[in-house]
Amino acid sequence: MSTLAVTHLALSHFRSHRHAxxxxxxxxxxxxxxxxxxxxxxxxxISLLSPGxxxxxxxxxxLVRRPESVGWxxxxxxxVPGGGHEIDTRxxxxxxxxxxxxxxxxxxxxxxxIVRMLWLVPSMDRLWIEGADxxxxxxxxxxxxxxxxxxxxxxxxxKAMRERNxxxxxxxxxxxxxxxxxxxxxxxxxxxxxxRTMALDRVHAAQGAAATAFPVSALTALQPDGxxxxxxxxxxxxxGDGRRRDLAAGRTLTGPHRADLGAEYTAKGVSAAQCSTxxxxxxxxxxxxxxxxxxxxxxxxxPILLLDEVAAHLDTGRRAALFDELRALGxxxxxxxxxxxxxxxxxxxxxxxxxxxxxxxxxxxAG
Length: 367
What we know:
With 367 residues, the protein is of the alpha/beta class. It has nine helices and 15 strands. Helix 3 (132-146) packs across helix 5 and helix 5 (179-208) crosses helix 8.
């Protein structure tokens, strides 16, 4: 299987990293250091080589190193099956983020066609017990890993819905104002639903076909109020029929923006929300691994994985099982933790990076 990997990373004034030039192994990379040293900042920079706002969902202005506030830059050399690319993404002070691939300015969605990337971070640990917004984001990230153009459909739908919601809040009742917006929402919404369904099917198949030490979960698409509209025609009719109710609420109450993702621990027949904290973490790891296996089958290269503080929350047996599965997957995977001992099973196999805090900024050295 071919390898997708970031082989060189250059940072300038990015969060705690004033300057950094790091050559990276195409296999596992273990990043360790004290809390606050800049480990997560490092993998956040890598996450911005994919579309969107990265693993912390930060705005461009939040990524600037203080107190300089002169703008930031991430440069990377990436190997892909059959070649390689240079990626540059940056934001000057007070300006939006810009992205270039091989010197050419591109929209962010273009990154998804080059770098397939998945991540698991501590903030996702409460995914199954908090609001549906986080589960939809998780679902859409999963979907974009298979179909990068899914992000465009989401943006189109959200923009049209915001405009429709403004009309609703202003109590505009003339149907002529709604027609074009609802048509755009219906067309994009049907694409969103089809893409999300495809992603669930691919992950289910990857879970069922693999021997894994992590629990398998059954994922279910949930829609409030029994809404079963899936085609553009169905959605357009639902938006029209729902205007009176939406006017009373001042917002759109029907559509894929209201969907939720349900999960059940298959072996126990228990919903993920009712599982223990450790079981919920194991279910998330299982989904990330299944997503990665499916992508490796589809594209011929495993995606890049970013696993922040995962090892610390697993017992010794589960940690060893995770490392074994990562080796079998053959992905470039970045793991963070507070101590080198967390990655003892990877000695001699993984690249070790020691990140330390310094008055002049985070320092990254071979570990």
